[in-house]
């Protein structure tokens, strides 16, 4: 008898995949994580601004320069299923802080590391502006 697969809740799924993107340390890891996270037809809104999939990818890539590691702390998440009870489609909002450990090469060949923190932002008025 085959076991029934039960997908994880949307919040859990979205947190896992966004963490994979932010923690990727190579371009191939980043591309694989990004493609696993967003469909080609995804609708993306960041702080009230609509972005194409490619714009969102460039935005995330711009936050990652010579990364050597990261940690992500999800503060809150909200999910609204599209059909009222589906765990597979809908809207997910994530509020998080990512600490990204950057690497800088010095002329001596040794690398210096320093952390950078990124935080998602929530507009208190709900306008996204």
Description:
It is a single chain. The protein has a single domain (about 10-120), classed as Nuclear Transport Factor 2, Chain: A. Helices cover about 25% and strands about 35% of the residues. Strand 1 and strand 2 form a beta hairpin. The relative contact order is 0.18. With about 130 residues, the protein is an alpha+beta fold.
Helix content: 25-40%
* C-alpha Rg (nearest Å): 17 Å
CATH architecture: Roll
Please write the string of helix (H) and strand (E) elements: HHEEHEEE
Strand percentage lies at: 35-45%
Shape: globular
Provide a brief overview of the structure.
The protein has 129 residues and is α+β, with helices and mostly antiparallel strands.
Write the topology of this structure.
Elements (H helix, E strand, L loop, with lengths): L9 H14 L3 H11 L6 E3 L2 E3 L1 H10 L4 E15 L8 E16 L5 E9 L10
Antiparallel strand pairs: 1-2, 3-4, 4-5
Helix pairs in contact: 1-2
Keywords:
disordered C terminus, two-stranded antiparallel ribbon, 129 residues, alpha+beta, single chain, Nuclear Transport Factor 2, Chain: A, 3-stranded antiparallel β-sheet, 5 strands
């Amino acid at each position: 008898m085959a076991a029934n697969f039960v997908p994880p809740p949307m919040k859990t799924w979205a947190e896992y995949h966004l963490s994979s993107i932010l923690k990727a340390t190579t371009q191939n890891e980043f591309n694989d994580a990004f493609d696993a996270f967003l469909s080609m037809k995804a609708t993306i809104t960041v702080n009230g601004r609509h972005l194409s999939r490619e714009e969102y990818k460039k935005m995330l890539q711009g936050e990652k320069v010579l990364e050597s590691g990261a940690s992500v702390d999800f503060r809150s998440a909200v999910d609204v299923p599209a059909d009222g009870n589906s765990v597979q489609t809908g809207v997910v909002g994530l509020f998080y802080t990512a600490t990204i450990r950057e690497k800088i090469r010095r002329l001596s060949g040794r690398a210096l590391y320093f952390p950078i923190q990124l935080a998602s932002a929530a507009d208190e008025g709900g306008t996204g502006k």
